[in-house]
Each structure stands twice: as structure tokens, then as C-alpha cells.
Amino acid sequence: MANENTIKEEVTNQEEMNTTQDTTMESTETSNETIVNNEEQDELTKANEKIADLEQKVQEYENKLYRVQADFENYKRRVRLDQEAAQKYRAQSLISDMLSSIDNFERAMKIDAEDEKTKTLLQGMDMVYRGLIEALKNEGVEIIDAVGQQFDPQLHQAVMQVEDSEYESGVVIEQFQKGYKLKDRVIRPSMVKVNQ
Amino acid sequence: MANENTIKEEVTNQEEMNTTQDTTMESTETSNETIVNNEEQDELTKANEKIADLEQKVQEYENKLYRVQADFENYKRRVRLDQEAAQKYRAQSLISDMLSSIDNFERAMKIDAEDEKTKTLLQGMDMVYRGLIEALKNEGVEIIDAVGQQFDPQLHQAVMQVEDSEYESGVVIEQFQKGYKLKDRVIRPSMVKVNQ
């Protein structure tokens, strides 16, 4: 568009000048002027080609720049999401590794304390146990609700099915092993008995 | 450089043509040609200005593009380092939270097992304890060496100093509380007695 306008303007100017100006140059100069004029037209054509090339180059750089900037923004967003997820589930590996010890802990404490010494030991162990569970809770670990809940394949793993008219259909009626979630992610489903 | 060469060429061409060509145009046309020539020179000047502008623009885009690309690369490198560090020390918070429970665990187990029941309980608890320590080790947790080591303020916290000729100078002779490292990072220094 800019080029077209320039050409139109030029044509108009030439016509105006043709009607208002008179001859002032000698014949010998005419030839040189004409040649120079042709030369200048050549040069102008080259200049206009160069302008077109450069304008294309500018356009290419502009596109490339936008693309790189868009890539950069996408990368930043993805990194932010990755970092959030990594932060959210950061302790998952250690927690998973700890679960069998927590199971053993609970099993070992299911002992009848008869003498004072065993009672004292059990009390101490109960304090340790609650401290560990508290540390896990602080990290976002939750025990999955099971007994009395509707069976949910996302949270519960059915290892036994019974038909018991005392309970509603599809309800978890017993838990064999505790399940754990880390925030919204199930680390280990609860192993349960379900009523059909 | 390209511009200079073009100008030189043009001048040479003009001189050649001045000597080989003759007058072929009428006087009335001369005036118009001269004006058109001026017009074209104006246009050429404008075109050259535009070329200069565009070349500057291309240069600016080129610089901008290099800058954005360099920023992008730096960002990627920083993110990689951040992610490595986040991954390396991911469980630090949970580990720190667990240390007092581990202390209590060790304290509670320092009991004389007399009857069989207490012995069984202690054996079960020892298994749980070793399971937890194993899980911590898998995450990169190490117990800091203390007794018999040279005192190191990076690893040990001196809570007591004695002068005992039986031991070498600056040696840790007793530990009051275990210290822990997570990989190369001290989570809690070892609390010790040092020989002056």
C-alpha cells in the first residue's frame, strides 16, 4: 500500500511540473540527463527491491521473535505446573517406603500390656507412633476412609466380597490394610471386604 | 559497504555513457526530463532513507531475538538447577519433622526386656525402627559420624567442652543427640562433647 501511494504521488507531481515549467537546459546536457535518469531509474528499482527484501526480513524477524516469545511463555507455564506438582508430591517416595513400617508398628502395638514395664514401653511407642503420623499429616498424608463407606475403586481394593443383608449394598464392611492418600493422590488403596 | 560500492559503480557507468552517447532528445523534452530527474533523485533519497531505517530495524530485531533466545537459555539452565535441587532435597521437610520421633523411638527402646512379652514387643519395634531408618537411607539420609571424629562445626554442635588428656585435642568424645545429613546438606548437627 505504501509503495502504491508513493508511485501515485510521484505521477501527480510530474504532471503538474510538466504544465508549469519551461525549457531551460541546453541540448548537450539533455543526453547526459536522460542517461543519468535511466541510471537513476535502475538504481531506484534496485532500491525498491532492497526495500521489499528488507521488509520481508523485518516480517520474518517479527514472526520469529513472536514465536520464540510464545515458546518462552509456554515453557514458563509448563515449568510452573511441573514445579507445583513436584512440590505437592515431593515426599511421595519416602512416604511409600515408610508405609510397611507404619503397618508393622500398628501390628506390634496390638499386644496386651500386663506388667508395668510393657505398659511403659507401649506408652512410649504410642507417642512415637503419633509423632510419625503427625509428621506424615503435616506433609499432606491422609488415611483413606473405608469401613462404612461406599466402595470406591479409586480408593479401595476389594480383596473379599460377601453377601450380608445386615449391610447396604456396595458398602465396605471390613478393612484388612489401611490405605493412604498424599493430598489428592492415592499412595496405596485401602484393602477391604465389600458387601455385594 | 554495499551502498558505497553501488555508488561507485553508478558513477563509473555515468562517465562511460557521457563519452559514448549523443544528443537524441528534443529541447521541450529536456525540461521535463530534468524535473523528473530531480523527482527521481528525491525518491531515491527517500528510498535510501527507508533502506537505512529498515536496516536499523532488522538490526534491532536481530538484537532483540538474540537477547530473548539468550534469556530463554538462561532460564532453562536455572530451571534445571532448581529442579535438581528440589529433587535432591525433596523430602527434607518430612525428614526434619520425623527426627524427634526417631529420637523418642531410640529412647523408648533403651529398656531392659525381662519377660518374654516385652522382649517380643521390643523385637517387633526394632524391626519397625530398622524399616524406618532404611526408608530414610533410601531417601539419602545419613547419620553424622561423631564420637572419635575431629570436631567439625559444619557437622557438630559443641554443647560441652572438657579437658581430658586421654583423648586427642579437638576430638568428639561423647554424643548427646544424633545428627543427620540429607545428601550433602546437614539437617541437624550432632550435639556433642568435645575435648579441648
From TrEMBL, chains A, B:
UniProtKB keywords: Chaperone, Cytoplasm, Stress response
Region of interest (Disordered), ranges: 1-44
Biased amino acid composition, Basic and acidic residues: 1-11
Subcellular location: Cytoplasm
UniProt superkingdom: Bacteria
Classification via InterPro entries: GrpE, GrpE_CC, GrpE_head
Composition-biased stretches (Low complexity): 19-34
PANTHER family given in the database record: GRPE PROTEIN (PTHR21237), GRPE PROTEIN HOMOLOG, MITOCHONDRIAL (PTHR21237:SF23)
Function: Participates actively in the response to hyperosmotic and heat shock by preventing the aggregation of stress-denatured proteins, in association with DnaK and GrpE. It is the nucleotide exchange factor for DnaK and may function as a thermosensor. Unfolded proteins bind initially to DnaJ; upon interaction with the DnaJ-bound protein, DnaK hydrolyzes its bound ATP, resulting in the formation of a stable complex. GrpE releases ADP from DnaK; ATP binding to DnaK triggers the release of the substrate protein, thus completing the reaction cycle.
Known partners and oligomeric status: Homodimer.
Record family assignment: Belongs to the GrpE family.
Protein name in UniProt: Protein GrpE
Native species: Litchfieldia luteola
Lineage summary: Bacteria, Bacillati, Bacillota, Bacilli, Bacillales
